[in-house]
Amino acid sequence: MPAHTDIAPDALHARSLEQEELFPIREVARLTGINPVTLRAWERRYGLIQPTRTESGHRLYSMSDIEKVRSILGWIERGVAVSKVGKILARTEPLQVLAKIIPDELVQADYIQWQQQVQAAVSAFDEVKLEQVYGQIFSSYPLTVVFQDILIPLWKQLLRRHEAFGQTSEWLFLDGFLRSRVLQRLLLVRVLQPRRVIVCALDEQVRELDVLITALYLSHVDSAMQLLSIGQPFDELTLVCERVKPQALILVSNHAPAADLARRLNRLVLSLDCQLLLAGDASDLAQESLAGSSVGCLGNEGAVMRQRLKQFLAGNLDT
Question: CA triplet 240, 244, 246: central angle to 5 degrees?
């Protein structure tokens, strides 16, 4: 774990808030799906959230507060009583606040320590131990940090290493474990709404875990996520959308975009009655070539993707 710091936690929190945009309670309710009455109850009755106040007394929430709301919801969905969530957050919150502002080398050292524990369990093909470490990481960090900064970098590292005997088997073991756990979480947080968002790999080069995690990052949006299988023909996406009638089609890729990607996407969007969005590393790499088109780019970072999708669906963000 990161070493202690001489900066007081309240000061750390204040400095963190200065760097973040603040949201009114109605916007937090839209972003999280938790109504304002519940948000106020979590604050007054349990002290779970402490938003800042304007001079007139209106509540303002930072992105850190929003992530905490989602964390609270996650614990409740896992069967933890709301009255007990505060004790869990009290153990994990200082680490999450510190991770945003303490020196990067200390944060990275903590990530590496967790990765080493995951690697040890994977090398032993010990699913019980891996499940234990996986749970401990989730009790210490929010979802986006767990995957973006700890698990996926190790997953990619193992994927690139094929020289030594057994390394392919280790990657397959970790990949299978993560895919099953992400699917479990998707089922847990699935929002059964009439509106649907289709999430699909851009091409067959995309790994299934990339698509699953993208869907997980976006799953807090007030629409049901529907995943299409790897190998879905690009030319038949129009057919699928005609029958499903989604609000948006999201194509996922972490590979460098092909030279003709912008042309293919611009042609596809003309045949759709829904928004076409690109997510993953390819989104950032193709953003310039898609400027001025009807294709939206969500980026490759969990919280940013979720916020942009919400804005796209509400019609508040230009492509």
Answer: 105
For the stretch 73-106, pLDDT in tens is 777 766 677 777 777 776 655 545 444 444 456 6
Per-residue pLDDT tens digits for 16-29? 434 457 889 988 88
Domain layout of the chain by residue ranges: 9-101, 104-186, 190-314
User: Is domain 104-186 annotated with CATH 1.10.1240?
Assistant: yes
CATH 1.10.1660.10 fits 9-101, yes or no: yes
Which of these CATH numbers, 3.10.20.90, 3.40.50.720, 3.55.40.20, 3.40.50.280, describes 190-314? 3.40.50.280
